[in-house]
Design brief:
mainly alpha
């Protein structure tokens, strides 16, 4: 469900977690990996103007 793009709140409810904290404790590494992949896509699509360059705001 994570890789399919469902929200973490939806996933937590479907899997029976009582909080997002529990879900992130168990699957945090996956969310972190997906965020890194999204950051890479943004860098590529924006010509690296917004992320990853030091000294820019």
């Amino acid at each position: 469900m994570i890789y399919a793009g469902y929200s973490d709140w939806y996933i937590a409810k479907r899997l029976g977690y009582s909080s997002l904290k529990e879900l992130h404790r168990m699957y945090g590494h996956v969310f972190t990996q997906m965020q890194a992949e999204a950051d890479t896509k943004l860098r590529v699509s924006s010509g690296q103007e917004y992320l990853g360059k030091k000294g820019t705001k």
